[in-house]
Amino acid sequence: MTDTEPDDSSKSIDYDSASKVYDQLRSGNPEMMHEVLKGASIPDGGVVLDIGCGTCNNTLLFMKASRTRVVGIDLSRGMLNKACEKGPAPHLIQSSADRLPFKTCSFDFAYMTEVLHHVRDFRATIASAGRALRNHGQLCVVTQSHEQIDKRITSRFFPSTAGIDKSRYPSIKEIEGTMLDNHFVKVRNDTHEFATEDLGAEYLETIEQRAYSMLHMISEKEFQEGLARLREVIHSDEPLIYTPRYTFVWGIKGDLVGGVGTEVYSIAQQIS
Ligand SMILES: C[S@@+](CC[C@H](N)C(=O)[O-])C[C@H]1O[C@@H](n2cnc3c(N)ncnc32)[C@H](O)[C@@H]1O
After folding, report:
1. Which domain holds residue 114?
2. How many domains are contained in the chain?
Protein backbone atom coordinates (compact mmCIF):
# COMPACT_ATOMS: atom_id res chain seq x y z
CA MET A 1 0.00 0.00 0.00
CA THR A 2 1.43 3.40 -0.94
CA ASP A 3 0.27 6.96 -0.40
CA THR A 4 0.04 7.51 -4.13
CA GLU A 5 -3.28 6.90 -5.84
CA PRO A 6 -2.57 4.82 -8.93
CA ASP A 7 -2.83 7.10 -11.94
CA ASP A 8 -2.61 4.82 -14.95
CA SER A 9 -0.29 1.86 -14.55
CA SER A 10 0.19 1.52 -18.30
CA LYS A 11 1.60 5.07 -18.58
CA SER A 12 3.52 5.56 -15.35
CA ILE A 13 5.49 3.58 -12.79
CA ASP A 14 5.45 3.34 -9.01
CA TYR A 15 7.29 6.54 -8.12
CA ASP A 16 6.99 5.86 -4.38
CA SER A 17 9.37 2.93 -4.92
CA ALA A 18 11.43 4.76 -7.55
CA SER A 19 11.91 7.68 -5.11
CA LYS A 20 14.24 5.52 -2.99
CA VAL A 21 16.95 5.58 -5.69
CA TYR A 22 15.81 8.37 -8.02
CA ASP A 23 18.30 10.98 -6.83
CA GLN A 24 21.24 8.58 -6.98
CA LEU A 25 20.55 7.99 -10.65
CA ARG A 26 19.02 11.18 -12.01
CA SER A 27 20.01 14.73 -11.26
CA GLY A 28 18.54 18.08 -12.24
CA ASN A 29 19.56 19.64 -15.53
CA PRO A 30 20.94 23.18 -15.04
CA GLU A 31 21.08 23.81 -18.80
CA MET A 32 17.43 22.86 -19.16
CA MET A 33 16.32 25.06 -16.29
CA HIS A 34 18.42 27.93 -17.62
CA GLU A 35 16.57 27.68 -20.95
CA VAL A 36 13.17 27.47 -19.23
CA LEU A 37 13.99 30.58 -17.23
CA LYS A 38 15.29 32.39 -20.32
CA GLY A 39 11.92 31.97 -22.05
CA ALA A 40 9.83 32.76 -18.97
CA SER A 41 8.40 36.13 -18.26
CA ILE A 42 7.75 36.36 -14.53
CA PRO A 43 6.82 39.63 -12.82
CA ASP A 44 8.61 40.72 -9.63
CA GLY A 45 7.16 38.77 -6.73
CA GLY A 46 5.54 36.34 -9.18
CA VAL A 47 4.52 32.83 -8.13
CA VAL A 48 5.63 29.78 -10.13
CA LEU A 49 4.15 26.27 -10.26
CA ASP A 50 6.29 23.18 -10.96
CA ILE A 51 3.87 20.44 -12.06
CA GLY A 52 5.20 16.93 -11.31
CA CYS A 53 8.17 18.35 -9.39
CA GLY A 54 9.33 14.90 -8.21
CA THR A 55 12.22 15.17 -5.75
CA CYS A 56 12.63 18.86 -6.71
CA ASN A 57 15.99 18.39 -8.47
CA ASN A 58 14.95 20.85 -11.15
CA THR A 59 12.70 22.93 -8.87
CA LEU A 60 15.64 23.83 -6.64
CA LEU A 61 17.75 24.81 -9.66
CA PHE A 62 14.90 26.97 -10.94
CA MET A 63 14.38 28.63 -7.54
CA LYS A 64 18.06 29.38 -7.16
CA ALA A 65 18.38 30.89 -10.61
CA SER A 66 15.12 32.85 -10.59
CA ARG A 67 14.72 33.81 -6.92
CA THR A 68 10.98 33.34 -7.33
CA ARG A 69 8.48 31.65 -5.02
CA VAL A 70 7.82 28.17 -6.38
CA VAL A 71 5.03 25.75 -5.46
CA GLY A 72 5.64 22.11 -6.42
CA ILE A 73 2.97 19.48 -6.92
CA ASP A 74 3.48 15.79 -7.48
CA LEU A 75 1.34 12.67 -7.26
CA SER A 76 3.94 10.66 -5.35
CA ARG A 77 4.35 11.23 -1.63
CA GLY A 78 7.63 9.29 -1.76
CA MET A 79 9.09 11.75 -4.29
CA LEU A 80 7.87 14.73 -2.23
CA ASN A 81 9.31 13.27 0.98
CA LYS A 82 12.72 13.03 -0.74
CA ALA A 83 12.36 16.69 -1.75
CA CYS A 84 11.68 17.63 1.89
CA GLU A 85 14.93 15.94 2.97
CA LYS A 86 16.89 18.51 0.92
CA GLY A 87 16.35 21.36 3.37
CA PRO A 88 14.46 24.57 2.68
CA ALA A 89 11.98 23.32 0.12
CA PRO A 90 9.41 25.05 -2.02
CA HIS A 91 5.79 24.74 -0.92
CA LEU A 92 4.90 21.15 -1.80
CA ILE A 93 1.47 19.70 -2.35
CA GLN A 94 0.53 16.13 -3.19
CA SER A 95 -1.92 16.26 -6.06
CA SER A 96 -2.59 14.88 -9.48
CA ALA A 97 -1.63 17.22 -12.29
CA ASP A 98 -5.00 16.88 -13.98
CA ARG A 99 -6.89 18.14 -10.91
CA LEU A 100 -4.74 20.95 -9.54
CA PRO A 101 -6.05 22.14 -6.17
CA PHE A 102 -5.66 25.86 -6.80
CA LYS A 103 -7.98 28.76 -7.41
CA THR A 104 -8.25 30.01 -10.97
CA CYS A 105 -5.52 32.52 -11.80
CA SER A 106 -3.14 31.67 -8.92
CA PHE A 107 0.21 31.51 -10.79
CA ASP A 108 2.29 33.69 -13.08
CA PHE A 109 4.28 30.88 -14.66
CA ALA A 110 3.99 27.08 -14.69
CA TYR A 111 6.31 24.46 -16.09
CA MET A 112 6.57 20.68 -16.20
CA THR A 113 9.71 18.73 -17.00
CA GLU A 114 9.36 15.15 -18.22
CA VAL A 115 5.90 14.66 -16.74
CA LEU A 116 3.24 14.87 -19.46
CA HIS A 117 3.85 11.31 -20.71
CA HIS A 118 3.11 9.94 -17.22
CA VAL A 119 -0.30 11.45 -16.68
CA ARG A 120 -3.46 9.55 -17.54
CA ASP A 121 -5.09 12.52 -19.27
CA PHE A 122 -2.67 15.03 -20.79
CA ARG A 123 -5.51 17.22 -22.06
CA ALA A 124 -7.00 17.55 -18.57
CA THR A 125 -3.51 18.32 -17.26
CA ILE A 126 -2.99 21.17 -19.71
CA ALA A 127 -6.51 22.47 -19.05
CA SER A 128 -5.89 22.35 -15.30
CA ALA A 129 -2.60 24.25 -15.69
CA GLY A 130 -4.45 26.79 -17.84
CA ARG A 131 -7.02 27.37 -15.11
CA ALA A 132 -4.33 27.76 -12.43
CA LEU A 133 -2.48 30.46 -14.39
CA ARG A 134 -3.42 34.11 -14.27
CA ASN A 135 -4.47 35.79 -17.51
CA HIS A 136 -1.34 36.27 -19.68
CA GLY A 137 0.53 33.77 -17.49
CA GLN A 138 2.76 31.29 -19.29
CA LEU A 139 3.06 27.50 -19.42
CA CYS A 140 6.20 25.65 -20.54
CA VAL A 141 5.97 21.89 -21.20
CA VAL A 142 9.40 20.27 -21.46
CA THR A 143 9.06 17.05 -23.41
CA GLN A 144 10.52 15.11 -26.34
CA SER A 145 9.14 14.91 -29.85
CA HIS A 146 8.67 11.49 -31.43
CA GLU A 147 11.72 12.15 -33.60
CA GLN A 148 13.79 12.95 -30.50
CA ILE A 149 12.59 9.72 -28.87
CA ASP A 150 13.76 7.73 -31.92
CA LYS A 151 17.24 9.25 -31.55
CA ARG A 152 17.71 8.34 -27.87
CA ILE A 153 20.48 5.92 -26.95
CA THR A 154 17.86 3.80 -25.16
CA SER A 155 15.99 3.40 -28.48
CA ARG A 156 19.18 1.92 -29.98
CA PHE A 157 19.71 -0.68 -27.25
CA PHE A 158 16.07 -1.30 -26.26
CA PRO A 159 14.22 -0.79 -29.56
CA SER A 160 10.68 -1.36 -28.29
CA THR A 161 11.03 1.53 -25.80
CA ALA A 162 10.75 3.94 -28.75
CA GLY A 163 7.30 2.64 -29.71
CA ILE A 164 6.18 2.50 -26.08
CA ASP A 165 7.19 6.10 -25.52
CA LYS A 166 5.75 7.36 -28.79
CA SER A 167 2.40 6.08 -27.55
CA ARG A 168 2.90 7.63 -24.08
CA TYR A 169 4.23 11.00 -25.23
CA PRO A 170 1.66 13.22 -26.93
CA SER A 171 3.05 14.68 -30.14
CA ILE A 172 4.10 18.33 -30.15
CA LYS A 173 1.14 19.09 -32.43
CA GLU A 174 -1.26 17.46 -29.96
CA ILE A 175 0.19 19.47 -27.08
CA GLU A 176 -0.06 22.72 -29.01
CA GLY A 177 -3.61 21.93 -30.20
CA THR A 178 -4.68 21.09 -26.65
CA MET A 179 -3.22 24.35 -25.36
CA LEU A 180 -5.15 26.30 -28.00
CA ASP A 181 -8.35 24.48 -27.00
CA ASN A 182 -7.80 25.24 -23.31
CA HIS A 183 -7.27 28.88 -22.44
CA PHE A 184 -3.95 29.38 -24.27
CA VAL A 185 -3.12 31.73 -27.13
CA LYS A 186 0.27 32.39 -28.75
CA VAL A 187 1.44 28.80 -28.67
CA ARG A 188 4.90 27.90 -29.98
CA ASN A 189 7.67 25.34 -29.55
CA ASP A 190 11.43 25.36 -29.67
CA THR A 191 14.01 22.60 -29.58
CA HIS A 192 17.07 22.47 -27.36
CA GLU A 193 20.28 20.48 -27.47
CA PHE A 194 22.15 19.99 -24.24
CA ALA A 195 25.81 19.12 -23.63
CA THR A 196 27.04 16.14 -25.62
CA GLU A 197 28.27 13.34 -23.40
CA ASP A 198 30.51 10.32 -23.90
CA LEU A 199 28.44 7.84 -21.91
CA GLY A 200 30.29 5.49 -19.57
CA ALA A 201 29.99 3.64 -16.28
CA GLU A 202 27.58 6.13 -14.72
CA TYR A 203 25.14 5.76 -17.61
CA LEU A 204 25.44 1.97 -17.46
CA GLU A 205 24.43 2.06 -13.78
CA THR A 206 21.43 4.26 -14.60
CA ILE A 207 20.28 1.67 -17.10
CA GLU A 208 21.06 -1.31 -14.83
CA GLN A 209 18.84 0.29 -12.18
CA ARG A 210 16.13 1.00 -14.80
CA ALA A 211 16.11 4.69 -13.88
CA TYR A 212 14.00 5.52 -16.94
CA SER A 213 10.37 4.53 -16.69
CA MET A 214 10.11 2.91 -20.14
CA LEU A 215 12.70 0.31 -19.08
CA HIS A 216 10.03 -1.05 -16.71
CA MET A 217 7.68 -1.54 -19.65
CA ILE A 218 9.67 -3.95 -21.84
CA SER A 219 10.16 -7.70 -21.51
CA GLU A 220 12.91 -9.04 -19.24
CA LYS A 221 14.43 -10.71 -22.31
CA GLU A 222 14.70 -7.45 -24.26
CA PHE A 223 16.06 -5.67 -21.18
CA GLN A 224 18.79 -8.28 -20.56
CA GLU A 225 19.78 -8.47 -24.24
CA GLY A 226 19.99 -4.68 -24.56
CA LEU A 227 21.95 -4.43 -21.33
CA ALA A 228 24.47 -7.01 -22.55
CA ARG A 229 24.99 -5.06 -25.81
CA LEU A 230 25.34 -1.80 -23.88
CA ARG A 231 27.91 -3.31 -21.49
CA GLU A 232 29.90 -4.54 -24.47
CA VAL A 233 30.03 -1.08 -26.07
CA ILE A 234 30.81 0.69 -22.80
CA HIS A 235 33.64 -1.73 -22.02
CA SER A 236 35.06 -1.40 -25.56
CA ASP A 237 37.00 1.46 -27.16
CA GLU A 238 33.95 2.57 -29.13
CA PRO A 239 32.73 5.95 -27.83
CA LEU A 240 29.04 6.19 -26.97
CA ILE A 241 28.25 9.78 -27.80
CA TYR A 242 24.84 11.26 -26.97
CA THR A 243 23.38 14.73 -27.28
CA PRO A 244 20.14 15.06 -25.29
CA ARG A 245 17.48 16.91 -27.29
CA TYR A 246 14.22 18.26 -25.91
CA THR A 247 11.26 20.27 -27.15
CA PHE A 248 9.78 23.08 -25.08
CA VAL A 249 6.14 23.90 -25.83
CA TRP A 250 5.13 27.38 -24.68
CA GLY A 251 1.68 28.87 -24.31
CA ILE A 252 0.40 32.18 -23.02
CA LYS A 253 -2.99 32.18 -21.36
CA GLY A 254 -5.56 34.44 -22.99
CA ASP A 255 -8.12 36.50 -21.07
CA LEU A 256 -10.41 34.25 -19.10
CA VAL A 257 -13.62 36.02 -18.19
CA GLY A 258 -14.44 35.89 -14.48
CA GLY A 259 -11.13 34.54 -13.17
CA VAL A 260 -9.24 36.72 -10.73
CA GLY A 261 -7.33 36.28 -7.48
CA THR A 262 -3.78 35.39 -6.67
CA GLU A 263 -4.10 33.38 -3.50
CA VAL A 264 -2.71 29.84 -3.53
CA TYR A 265 -5.57 27.60 -2.47
CA SER A 266 -5.23 25.41 0.59
CA ILE A 267 -1.61 25.99 1.48
CA ALA A 268 -2.52 23.98 4.61
CA GLN A 269 -2.11 20.89 2.46
CA GLN A 270 1.54 21.65 1.91
CA ILE A 271 3.98 19.02 3.06
CA SER A 272 6.68 20.32 5.35
C1 LIG B 1 10.42 11.60 -14.67
S2 LIG B 1 9.83 12.24 -13.17
C3 LIG B 1 10.21 13.98 -13.40
C4 LIG B 1 10.32 14.71 -12.09
C5 LIG B 1 10.74 16.17 -12.21
N6 LIG B 1 9.86 16.95 -13.01
C7 LIG B 1 12.15 16.27 -12.76
O8 LIG B 1 12.34 16.89 -13.81
O9 LIG B 1 13.07 15.75 -12.09
C10 LIG B 1 8.06 12.22 -13.39
C11 LIG B 1 7.28 12.75 -12.19
O12 LIG B 1 5.90 12.87 -12.56
C13 LIG B 1 5.13 12.52 -11.42
N14 LIG B 1 3.77 12.18 -11.85
C15 LIG B 1 3.35 11.10 -12.53
N16 LIG B 1 2.04 11.16 -12.76
C17 LIG B 1 1.60 12.31 -12.20
C18 LIG B 1 0.32 12.96 -12.09
N19 LIG B 1 -0.78 12.41 -12.62
N20 LIG B 1 0.25 14.13 -11.42
C21 LIG B 1 1.36 14.67 -10.87
N22 LIG B 1 2.60 14.13 -10.95
C23 LIG B 1 2.71 12.97 -11.61
C24 LIG B 1 5.88 11.35 -10.80
O25 LIG B 1 5.49 11.10 -9.47
C26 LIG B 1 7.31 11.83 -10.97
O27 LIG B 1 7.74 12.55 -9.84
Report:
1. 15-149+159-195+245-255
2. 1
The CATH number linked to 41 is 3.40.50.150
Nearest to 66 by CA among 128, 94, 108, 95: 108
Among candidate residues 116, 118, 132, the one with its CA nearest the CA of residue 214? 118
Q: Which atom of ligand 1 is nearest to the CA of 29?
A: 8
> What are phi and psi for residue 113, nearest 5 degrees?
-115, 115
Q: What residue's CA is closest to ligand 1, atom 27?
A: 54
The three-class DSSP label of residue 228 is: helix
Q: How far apart are CA 197 and CA 9, in angstroms?
A: 32
Q: What is residue 141's three-state secondary structure? A: strand
Burial (Cβ within 10 Å: 0-12, 13-18, ≥19) of residue 121: middle
Q: How far is the CA of 229 from the centre of ligand 1 (A)?
A: 30
pLDDT score at 88: 75
Report if pTM > 0.70: yes
Rounded average pLDDT per 10-residue block, the chain, 272 residues: 46 86 88 96 94 96 92 96 87 96 95 96 97 96 98 97 96 98 93 96 94 93 97 95 97 69 34 36
Instruction: For ligand 1, atom 15, name the residue with the nearest CA.
Output: 118
Q: What is the number of other CB atoms lying within 10 angstroms of the CB of residue 79?
A: 24
215 domain-assigned: no
Asked, for residue 6, whether it belongs to a domain, the answer is: no
Asked whether residue 207 is assigned to any structural domain, the reply reads no
Tens of pLDDT, residues 202-220: 999 999 999 899 999 999 9
Closest CA to 200 of 162, 165, 153: 153
* Domain annotation covers residue 235: no
Would you call 31 helix, strand, or coil by DSSP? helix
